[in-house]
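Predict the holo structure. Ligand: magnesium ion.
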Amino acid sequence: MAVATKARTFSGIKPSGDIHLGNYLGAVKRWVDDQDRYDNIYCVVDLHAMTVPFEPDQLRRRQRELFTILFAAGLDPERSIVFIQSHVRAHTELCWILNCVTPLGWLERMTQYKDAVAKLKENDSIPTGLLDYPVLMTGDIILYDARYVPVGEDQKQHVELARNIAERFNRLFGETFVVPEPVIQEEGARIMGLDDPTTKMSKSDQFPNRAIALLDDPDTIRRKIRGATTDSLREIRFDPSRPGVYNLLTIHHVLSGEPIAQIEARYEGKGYGDLKRDLGDLVVESLRPVQERYRALSGDPAQVDALIERGAERARAIAEPVLERAKRAVGLV
Ligand code: ATP
Ligand code: MG
């Protein structure tokens, strides 16, 4: 009798700043909710956090903090492999092999690369790693034979590039890699900045009122939501042409799971102040258990160390044979 196996998923998150509500709603919450559906591998991609200017002490602190938050958010070490990218050497090794089959033009076309270059300060040089980031990311995914890559809208182009690179490799050297595909949910895939609803919430942005960090205290959360940019109209409706209100309503809808029509009906005749107050409470209450679990787990460094070690071991056990396959295919062994 054939044993039904679950499809493998892989996704990653960079320790490039404080993890925020956009990361949670667009990615991490779904990883958690879908844990029984897939064979799950999730990664703190610290090597990716080095592609823009960074500080060693900060990287060390953020890497561990983000790893801990993923468990606090609900990833379960019994059902998901969670690990830190740099602890598995196969990632950088495969990256080099893939570099040698990836046309430069494919990388220069990436919109995130162009945006990141535009954000560098005037005298900063462009790190080669910034251009190469999507190749490293391709390796992250295909090292685990992952079929599905659950990401927010902004990562779609990179996952499509990963498909192209895997297909090209298979064409040149024979069937070696599983060709992955992005999985993007409709709702919450792009949570926008509170101060500027035309820009997505990002970890690496320097604007203090743009994102709600998962570890923000209740007063800070409520203050940021109170100050969110809306518009001068009064009606509270899910209307994408009014990005500020639309963003607040989307956060409400995805966090509460309440139908859109019901939310709109509740705010009939009410003002933005009411919506913001309720949303503040909803976000605070939704994040409370995550924050409590974070405090408990981060207060037990030995347990965090053990989780880090166990995740890396399990990841290595999958990645190493796949790397070996690639090395054979290209003639290195
Ligand atoms: P950075 O600014 O350093 O790129 P980031 O906030 O974009 O940070 P990433 O680590 O690049 O976060 O992405 C982690 C995951 O979160 C990815 O799946 C990405 O698609 C998703 N994501 C990032 N920002 C948002 C957002 N504003 N809304 C929904 N999903 C998001
Ligand atoms: Mg990003």
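The chain has two domains: 8-184+301-330, 218-295. The pocket of adenosine-5'-triphosphate (ligand 1) is lined by residues 11, 13-14, 16-17, 22-23, 26-27, 151-152, 154-155, 189-191, 200-204 (CB under 6 Å).
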